[in-house]
Each structure stands twice: as C-alpha cells, then as structure tokens.
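Dear colleague,

Thank you for sharing your sequence with our group. We've completed the structure prediction you requested, and as agreed, I am returning the results in plain text so they can be pasted directly into your records. Please verify that the sequence below matches your submission; if there's any discrepancy, let me know and we will rerun it promptly.
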Amino acid sequence: MNSQPGRLSSKMILCLLAVYIIWGSTYLGMKIATKVVPPFFLSSLRFLLAGSLLLIIGCLREKTWPTRSRFLSACFVGVALIGIGNTTVALAVHHMPSGLVALMVAAMPAWIMGMDWAFFSKQRPSVLTLIGIVIGFAGLFLLFNPFAHHEAHTFPLWPVAVVVFGNICWAAGTLFVQRLPMPTQITSTAIQMLAGGVFSFFVSLIFEPGALYTLPMMPMEGWQAYVYLVLIGSLVGYTSYSWLSKNAPPGLTATYAYVNPIVALFLGWAIGHEAITGMVGISAAIVISGVVMMTLGRKS
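Please find the predicted structure tokens below.
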C-alpha cells in the first residue's frame, strides 16, 4: 500500500537512506570492477545474478506471477533503467573519474521534472526549479567545458554524451513505472533486473567481443567489487529505488542526487585516488546547489 501523501513512513526513510549512501558507493565499485571486465558484460553478470536471486525471493514471498502486460511493462522499465541507464554509467566510469560521473547523474532531477512536464503531468516547474536547472547545467558545463584547452582534461569527453542519453532513459523509466501496470513489488524488481541484464548481455556480444575471457583475469578486488555490486548495490540499493519509484513522489525520489555525488567524490578521492581539484570542487558545489533548488522549488 502506498504511503499517505505528505507523510514519510519509516520504510520510505530507510529506502531513501539506502539509495543515498549505497548508490553513492557503487560508482567506485563499478570503476574497480570494470578495470578488467568490460562494462556491458559486467552489468549483465551483475543484474542477471541479482535478478535471479530476487526472483526466487519474490516467488517464495509473493506466490504470484504477473500477466503478460505486467511482465512486458517490467521488462520495458528494466531495459530503460538498467540495460541503458545503469550500464551507460558503468561505461562512463571505465573511462572517467567515478566522482565526475556521479556529478553528471546528479542532473537526473532536471530530466525527470522536464520530461514529467513535457509528456506526463504537464505541470510547469516553478521559477525556483527552472533557476536550479540552469544553475545545475551551468556547473556541469564549467566542469566539462569542451572549449577548454585539451590539457585541462585527463579523460575523454565522449562518455558525457553517453551518460546524458542514459540519464534520459533512466528518467523515462522512473516516470513510466508509476503509470504502467506492474507486477508485485519484488517480482517486478527482479524482472527489471533480468531484462536489463539480458539487454546488456546482447549489447556486450556485439560491442565487447572476447568479454567472457576477461573473467579469469579479474583480480580479487574486482571480484569483491562485483559481489558488493550484486548483494548491496543491486539487491538493496536498486530494490529500494524501485520501491520509491512506485510509492514516493518523483521529486522526493530524485533527491538522492544531492548525496550520491558527495559520497562518490569522497570515496573516489579516499579509496580510488581520484584528484579533487579546485575546479571540481567549485563545479560540484554549483551542481549540487542547482539540484537542491530544483527539488525545493518543485510544486507539490
């Protein structure tokens, strides 16, 4: 049953905390795991295992199987959220610092609110939200300015476009999940994971030949990161997000974008030895300020 409007249940708070903290740590986890194993193949392994485990749990607890329309809806959302949205992040962190990718994903509320306005609720964002969107994207432009000297970037800029596309797909999946007929909660999340995993696997077959042969070469830290991504990042983090997407207002769910970049930047610096320059710090402050304004200005 959905929580009453305007009230935060204890389950909603716990799910928000899980998405805030756990997802912030998955950027570094993907960075470590993709050092050897290609990103699409890693995502397929991650979500096929996590989805299979969750499907068993769902069958035991919910004792039901969705109709064809609900099954296809869950598959569609899974491809949008996981097959494209999450996997493009894994591709980006393979080539760029994990904290910077998290800052790009921080723009998610802008995509969700903009697409909700254009295609779903038709509710025009408030002036404060629009100002927040402009500020947030200005911060990202400052960080990834394509007109800056080449020496200013120690990484390629093409993954920026990949993440933007992934953000749009993730926003679409988040908005559709509240509007499509979906299976029961656990089963729905499991099907989404499996659909996203299957999609990533076929993309890997096309664009990552020989990916299977990288598994024996993965070091212990890579396997540890993979296990963390499956058990914590997917089973706990994504399940929490899936529940929020169906039971919480989109604007509240989008607030994870405040915390994720901070957690990712800190872990990338403390564990991944990623540099946090003055420009990164200023850009991060601008982006996060914009995100806060977006959601605070959101009309209830």
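Summary note from our side: Confidence is low (pLDDT under 50) at residues 1-6.

Kind regards,
the structure core
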